[in-house]
Amino acid sequence: MAGLRDVVTLVFLVSGLGFMLIGVCGIVRLPDAYQRLHASSKCSTLGLLGLLTGAAVHIGTPESVMKAIVTIVFAFVAMPVGSHVLAKSAHASGMRQWASTLSDELAEDQAGEVPGA
After folding, report:
1. Contact, 82 vs 55, CB < 8 A?
2. Which residues contact 40 (CB under 8 A, 6 or more apart)?
3. What 8-state DSSP symbol labels residue 110?
């Protein structure tokens, strides 16, 4: 049974690290701050999910599982909200989007334009 727990732990840890690695590649390679924010929020939420789940499975005590669940719930609520606030603040300060970005829906909403018209 301990061998199965170790395999499950390893799967969760590797998946968490994989999401973190993909997110770091996105942060390095994506062209503007808005897309980098998207990559960083995805990698931090999904990577943290894998790492904390792996740690909770490995430790196996009810306290560690409860702490992991509370942390994951908090992260899934707080990280996207934080990324949204950062993106909105960057937009308000005039940070430009990548030249090949197709639309700026926030600017269209603020200008009172009707989408698709």
Report:
1. no
2. 23, 26, 27, 83
3. H
Token readout for 73 is: 């719930």
Give residues with Cβ within 8 angstroms of 115, minimum separation 6: 105, 108
Look up the pTM and report it. Answer: 0.78
Give helix 33-59 / helix 2-29 axis angle, nearest 10°: 170
How many angstroms separate the CA atoms of 4 and 80, rounded? 33
User: Where along the chain do its domains lie?
Assistant: 2-95
Q: What is the pLDDT of residue 67?
A: 96
33-59 and 62-92 are packed helices; what angle lies between their axes, rounded to 10 degrees? 180
Q: What is the DSSP letter of 104?
A: -
